[in-house]
Amino acid sequence: MKRLLAAFALHLALIPGLAGVAHAAAPTGQIGAMLAKPDQLCGTFDQTKRLAGMKKPLVSTGRFCVVAGKGVLWRTLKPFPNTLRLKRDEIVHLQGDRVAMRLDARQEPTVRMINGVLFSLLSGDLGQLDSLFEVDGSVSGDSWKVALKARNAALARAIGAISLEGGAYVRSIQMVEDSGDRTEIVFSNIKTGPGAVLPEEAAQL
Amino acid sequence: MHPRRLALAWAFIVCLLVGHNAWLWIGQRIAPDTDILALLPIEKQDPVLQQSFTHMVDSAQQRVVVLVGARDWAAAGRAADAYRTALAQADARAVLAFDAIGDDTQANWLASLQPHATLLIGSAQERQLHTHTAQVWADDALARLYNAFSGPRLGAFRDDPFGLFAGWAQERAGETPVRPRDGRLFVAGEGREYVLLTYTLTRPAFSLDAQDAAVPLLDGAAAAARRAVPDADVISAGVVLHAAAAGRQASREIHTIGVGSVLGIVLLTWLTFRSLRPIGLTLLAIGVGFLGALSVCWLLFGQIHLLTLVFGASLIGVAQDYGIYFLCHRLRADPALDSPALLRRLLPGLGLTLLAAVIGYLGLALTPFPGLRHMAVFSALGLVFAWLTVVCWFPMLISARTLKAGPLARHYRALVAHWPRFSRTPLSLGVLLALAAISVAGWSQLKTNDDIRSLQSSPAQLVQDQIKLGKLLDAPSPVQYYLVRGDSNEQVLQREEALKRRLDPLIGAGHLAGYQALSNWVPSQQAQAARLALVEAKLLAVGGPLSLLADAIEEGPEWAAATAAHLRSQGAPMRVDAFLHSAAAAPWRHLWLGEIAAHSQPAAGKTVASIVAVRGLRYASLPVLARAADGLAGTQWVDKVGGISQVLGSYRANMGWVVLGAYLVVFAVLLPRYRRRTWRVLAPTALASVLTIALLGLFGQPFQLFHVLALMLLLGVGVDYGIFMQEDAAEGDDAAWLAVALSAASTILGFGLLALSGTPALRAFGLTMLLGAALVWLFAPAFSVTKEGKHATPV
Question: Which of B145, B179, B554 sits opposite A11 (nearest CB)?
Fold first, then answer.
């Protein structure tokens, strides 16, 4: 069966960033208690990418929303607009109105799994994370720091090292890939509650 | 030769046979051939086709696939762990080896393809390269560049700026719904999540000890999984499960049908002879016949097919007649007449029965089918050996005092004396007309059915599991696929690509879900060159998407040139041989048959062959898929299920003609001795056969090979009865009546009871023997000549 079913690489590996949006950490219980876990959460992000073979860093900014039961919206606004939408059964990448990429659970079974892991992360359920990553964290005062190491070799190779920092919410994410590409995302202006999601964002989710 | 010396000489030969058989089965551990396609005529056998079957079927045969599912992944994992633990004990591991998923293999497979990444483009994106504008590609790349979660990505950005390699990998991943997850294999469906476990049997799936050992272990493991998670469901599939189910059914039947028939025969013999020694002796003759036939067949052919053995087992029906004939005469003969002298008197009749049967069976040898030839030789030899055992040993082992007439033997005479005889009276003709009417009615309703699936007798649960598992795993069919051949690797890959261009629209039309082919992984040199040219023209050319991208990120033409060079450096040509040695090829290696030596045409040069496997095919779409290969050079649709049905059908037709021919030959052999009475020897059997087929038609039984095989056996036993009746008519004693009655009753008990079997093939064989033997028994006395009749003008 091995050959029929394929030792097909960890499919998570194809979507490296996703598994890395870990809002959570360990000591799991303590950090879980510190997280606010709102139903709706929006904010702005500043992302800096340093890629192998490029002189200048790529800087982008935008907005993001996490809505329980609906999904995640990741809107890059500068230097040019494009939107990524994650729902339970699909991942859609919009370039303006054009769908640049769509992955749904029927064609790619891991979509639901990846999104499921992501959502449970965002709601503070750290049990899921533990099965994929070794979580090494520390808490000092009202902030925490966590380093994630993939348990699976293939996943580790694709994602590299991830570290998170936060308090009631995640403040920053850092990813260092084996290929030398590095990404740093800093979150700010976080709003929760009914008014957090803008009307145009609510329409897209 | 003196009878005693003859008996000793035969004992010596039998010792040799026993020794040879012991050496074959215990020393050499020979196993009967089970591939039904080995029975096809030699000229129709195709070594490449044959090898492709072996490739696809043999390994699948050893596998046990299990899905352990629950409502959520964590519960499924707990149930799967309990299942695995139950099978992790040493005694279980000796039977079922767990197929671990190699973590390292997974990690390495992409690395081995990286040097060729630029060549690997999915079919959708290959089409888009022709249609999308440079700006669209540049925008896509920019989005991918800036976005943190930009969708499928492999390696660093500069390795795959346009996401082509990632798209290709995504397309390949789509060939199976199974995904590694947390160190397990994961499948989802019908609202449940499943862990996939696969095991490989360490012993042949068809061996009894594998079945005996594996099935309880698997049942125990399933129970353990349900103990750990009460609502877990365990779906398992494997050839061994079907084989074990068939075995269980067979042993159940041995306990009911077998015990019934043995008891019946023992009772019958006791009531006739007041001794059980006749059974032992009859079995002895049959046993020697079987061993002798097997020894000589093995020496002649170097192999033996299972179907030959099955048909050979039916020899018992004919072989017992010789012994019974002698025993019945011994019972009736004057005690003063010693056994060797009695045998000498019976020898002409006995010799003739053997000759007729052997000649009848040898008719099978004239057909072009190797299986039928083997059966012919096996059967003829078996009869000769059984006959010689009777002739050489029985006079020594049975004396006049051994047997006493039992109640059955005493009263049977009276019954037969009043049996109606066939003559030219209006009543006889009326009966004959009625029988003719029944025959016409029955034959007109007769339908044939050679579909192998009608012989399927697996329990419904097992079949359901198999279907469910097939759906969840979306695995390709191991018995229906395309076989592609050419004179070089390149030609085969190009032919695969031509076939795939035909299949793509069929996927859209829902005839199949997809296909697996090595050319998905290693494009032909032609396709590799075309893709490189396409990438060069549409993406890398100065002023193209790569330049636009460089401008957008203010990296300038140097970056564009460096990235283009990097992408070109990832376009190293791919070769089949190198790919097959890489870790990525592990799941697909079976698709490549490689170079195959064609023994039939050594001058024709080398033949390279591969398999294109199809997933999610619908039964109704088989003709569409078969047509898809039409007109494509070196490409052939293979349907093993259909192929087996075809073999069964052509065997049925050919065997039917052989049965007819055998009647003519036997008639010719008997003619010199019986002259104008010859037709009386054959008439009961012929009439019984015609009526049996008619009754099958009236019962709505589809006519197939196993009915015809039974008719052949019926001819064998029926001719014996006819000869016995004609031989003894002159002496006017009733030994022949008794021999026919005993023989027919044993045949009905031994074979006819198979009509109760749950296995369709055996049921067909048994029903035919039940009806046929009973009818021959009824008809035989009606066609015998009474003492008076013989002196009157024979009809």
Answer: B179
| Total of domains in chain B | 2
Residues B338, B450, single domain; the answer is: no
Q: Are B654 and B781 within one domain?
A: yes
Q: Kindly report, residue by residue over B728-771, the tens digit of the pLDDT.
A: 765 556 778 888 888 888 888 877 887 887 777 778 888 998 99
**pLDDT digit string, tens, across residues B574-617:** 999 999 888 778 778 888 988 887 555 555 678 899 999 998 88
Q: Are strands A143-150 and B63-70 parallel, antiparallel or unpaired?
A: unpaired
For residue B559, being part of any structural domain is answered with no
Question: What's residue B149's pLDDT?
Answer: 58
Residues B302 and B438 both lie in one domain: no
Choosing from B375, B404, B433, the residue where a domain stops is: B404
Give residue B717's pLDDT band: very low, low, confident or very high (50, 70, 90). Answer: confident
Q: Is B445 near chain A, with CB under 8 Å?
A: no
Q: Is the pLDDT of residue B523 over 90?
A: yes
Name the residue with tokens 């893709």: B531
In this complex, which of A6, A132, A153 lies closest to B176 when CB atoms are compared? A6
Average pLDDT taken over every residue of chain A: 74
Residue from B110, B153, B521 whose CB has the most chain A CBs within 10 Å, to mutate: B153
How many degrees, rounded to 5, is the angle at CA B718 between CA B404 and CA B450?
130
The two three-digit tokens of residue A124, written as one number? 């503070």
Contacts of B233 (CB under 8 A, 6+ apart): B68, B69, B70, B192
- For residues B509 and A98, the model is more confident at B509
In a domain, B728, yes or no: yes
Maximum distance among all Cα pairs of chain A, rounded to whole angstroms? 52
CA A98 to chain centre: 23
Gap between the Cα atoms of B691 and B685, Å rounded: 10
Task: Provide the domain limits for residue B393.
Answer: 1-30+274-404
Backbone angles phi, psi at B59, to 5 degrees: -75, -35
pLDDT digits (tens, 9 = 90+) for B363-413: 667 766 777 788 888 888 999 999 999 999 988 888 877 778 888 777 777
Chain A residues within an 8 Å CB radius of B101: 2, 7
What domains lie within chain A, and their CATH numbers? 11-188 (2.50.20.10)
A140 touches chain B (CB under 8 A): no
Q: Are residues B393 and B423 in the same domain?
A: no
- Do B151 and A179 count as a contact with CB atoms less than 8 A apart? no
Is B94 within 8 Å of B552 (Cβ atoms)? no
CB pairs under 8 A between A and B: 193
Closest chain A CA to residue B59: A1
8 Å CB contact of B154 and A1: no
The DSSP secondary-structure symbol of B254 reads I
B54-92 tens-digit pLDDT: 777 776 778 889 999 999 888 999 999 999 999 988 888
- Interface check for A16 against chain B (CB to CB < 8 A): the answer is yes
CA B636 to chain A, closest CA, distance in angstroms equals 22
Nearest CB to A55 within list B65, B146, B555: B555
